Amino acid sequence: MSRLFGDVPAVRNFSLSLAEGEFVSLLGPSGCGKTTTLRMIAGFMPPSAGTIELDGRVISSPGWSLPPEARQMSMIFQSYAIWPNMTVAENVGFGLKIRKAPAAEIRRRVDEILEVVQLGGLRERYPAELSGGQQQRVALARAIVVKPAVLLLDEPLSNLDANLREEMRFEIRRLHDAFRITTLYVTHDQAEAMVTSDRIVVMSKGRIEQVDAPFALYGRPRTRFVAGFIGRTNLIEGRLDGEWVQFPGFRVPRPALEAQGPLAGEVLISVRPQSLHLVRGQAPGGARCAVQGRIALRAYLGEYWDYQVEVDGGKKPLRVMARPQEVFAVGEPVCVEVDVPQLVLIGKD
Amino acid sequence: MLRWRLPGDASSWLWLAAIAVLLVLVVNPLLRLVLASFQQPDGALTLANYAGAYGRVRHLEALGNSLVLGASAASLALLFGLPLAWALSRTDMPAKGLVWVSVLGTFIIPPYLGAVAWILLAGPNAGWLNRAFTALTGAPAGPFNIYSMPGLVLVTACYSFPYVFVLVKSALDLVSSEMEDAANILGAGTLRTTLSVTLPLVLPAIAGAFILCFLEAIAVFGTPALLALPGRFNVVTTQLWQFFEYPPRVGVAAAYAMPLLGVTVLLFWVQQRLTRRKGYVALTGKGGERRPLRLGGWRWPLLAYCCAVCAFSFLLPMVVVCQAAFAKAWGRGFSLDNLTLANLSFTLFQNSLTRGATLHTFVYGGAAALIALAVALCIAYIVQRQLVGRRLAGALSFITMAPFVIPGIVLAIGFYAAYTQAPLALYGTAWILILAFATRFLPIAYANSSSAMRSINPELEDAVRILGGTRLGAIRSVVAPLLKRSLAGAFILVFIPATRELSAAIFLYSTNTQVLSVLLFDKSDEGNFEMLASIGLILVAITIVLILAGWRLVGRDFMLRRSAA
């Protein structure tokens, strides 16, 4: 599906399907179209092109959309959207009341879910009397208690402080493991997506860049954007030269990269800073994949050293993450060992 | 391109109904006003109305008189309001609280009641000031005659200077002492600093206030009707009223109203431009620290001046109105044996005419406030929740705010032109008054509804809908409870002016639908000032009760939101 605002495309050719009980994140920088996508799925706006289906039934299309209230979904909003005029119990029980559940059952299920989100005993409080984290839990309880077909979360943790945010990441995943509700989670924070998700959809400028499990996304980024957005990386340009691929300062046998995809004249690879290793002085003779360079900048960050190594003919210095005891001086000639299986071929945009 | 994006659910009917009411209230009367100015009674197009309106010297003189009145009254209002605003905002003058209360008190006196009071004070021969003068000097007659242009200017200024005060004081409140310190440290004295730093910073506010007073003065009907007509001169509004004496000449009146409408729209536009240039005025939210200026011995002359202004506008008028309302005969003066409750009880209970008018005042005002608020809230919802395209939303906002720049008297002529014949023959019923009041104060309701709506995060409604509630359900269970308090405040802010409205009511009432303001004006030529004062006092009491109710409901600053409207 696609969505235009005026003539400006916000979401372009977005195509994704979720399995029952799966937890998928939409990850990308602000303005990449992830919230727009979520609001289309929720039914707050129709797509400009394409359709959305739920269990094989079309629920959104450019001409007609099932209104949000008929979709059996739940959503957690960036502002939590806890109704300030209702108590915690009234907030959480609202969806059940709309579904015309008997009062006794509403009471029981509200109490149950409040225990699950650790808010037992706060049922008669008003939202203004709760902390940010507690409000967040009310929003979670309110969304889960109706057992929705799909749970949508729109940057739910962005208003919390750092410690609470970390705690709530695990909480959200714990609740998912307990209830197995199909979940779509929008965030710009990769750590959040990594902790919570089965699969992550990386978006940029309204397009899907890559859909993969967190491990695969980090280890095998497919596009330049994903490689740069998920963690830090070195992007190195090289070119095909017979049976070798030549990079500034080193070369790699063609079959080693060709296994990852077809090679044309220009080749772009990504290699993580922690996959590179520094050795003092000259490269040992005959080592196939060692790069000669000089330390240009260094920063000591306690847990590791962050070195930038200048390589002859390289456009940008290589970043290398080294253990604290591997100390090199600025200007010192070094040899960077490249572990070939760690090189990732990036498709040309 | 105008684009309809109304949701395809039950709530659409509500939004369409609100838009339809808006057309009835604002668009149709204005179109009919313009149309009527080009139409003969039989509907044929003509320019004869314009010839009739501007073909006589008297009519042109009235236009000139209005300009003189507007410019003089606005200047006098500045003379009254500026020193008070400066004294209360920047100096260590004593008794600031007293002056402050008196200025607020001026707000609760309807201008036409002020005019009645000033007749008691400065009417030729019998007025209190004239009697005091003859008693003191032994002269045969006093020098004051309120039935004159200077008298009209004075009374008009007395009841518009509070605008100057409020606008300029709030601008002064935002000029931090640090800005003045910066001038002082560079060697400028107090006077130099005030004239070259403080004054220029609030100049846009002063200019805006001048324009507002000018517009108020040329649009007001009650004061000139009470003072200019007996003084045998006309201004635009009284001339318009005369066109309506039997048989009403609607076309001529409509043609004659055009310059009033044009000047008002133009000047409001200028005023908006002036006050929007905020970067220059430094009207940022944080004013920084302010220290009052030490006046030394000058404190007392300044206080005396402030007291004089308050005495003219509030104290003396209230005293003479109360005296007349509680007197057997006001001319017999202030003595115990002249005291009686008969006037008030007669007005409130015995006289069926005044009793009915009191009831009507409440019912019409309340109904008008409800209608205005309902329409304003719907339009605010449509606009803020982007239920329609951006241009259409802009147009709806504009139409809803338009009555703000339409003088009441012009609006009344439009209503008369639009609703005296089928399909909506409302003239003679209470509805035409209620709808006209609702229209006049629709902008107050809209400004309040809009800011109230803005404070509600749309996600609160989205949350209802994703859990299975409809849009109307979301409005009922979340929006309405959250808006309750601010809407109660807005209701009162519309109710207050609607209970004292005169300039539209005077064109639209019939014998069965009189309200207190109309009755007060109607009875003015009988010379029964005890009764006029009683009616006026009841109006003041209604206003005070409503203000107190507003304070209780919403908090003390709720009145201030009107000036933001």
Low-confidence stretches of chain A: none
Number of domains of chain B: 2
Helicity of chain A, in percent?
25-40%
Q: Which fold name is given in CATH as the topology of the largest domain in chain B?
A: MetI-like fold
Number of helices of chain B: 27
CATH C-level of the largest domain in chain A: Alpha Beta
* Helix-strand topology string of chain B: HHHHHHHHHHHHHHHHHHHHHHHHHHH
Shape of chain B: globular
Strand arrangement across the biggest beta sheet of chain A:
6-7-8-3-9-10
Spans of chain B with pLDDT under 50 lasting ≥5 residues?
1-5, 279-287, 561-565
Largest sheet of chain A: 6 strands, mixed
Apparent shape of chain A: elongated
Number of helical segments with 4 or more residues of chain A: 9
Strand percentage of chain A, roughly?
A: 25-35%
Order of helices and strands of chain A: EEEHEEEHHHEHEHEEHHEEEHEEEEEEE
CATH domain topology of the largest domain in chain A: Rossmann fold
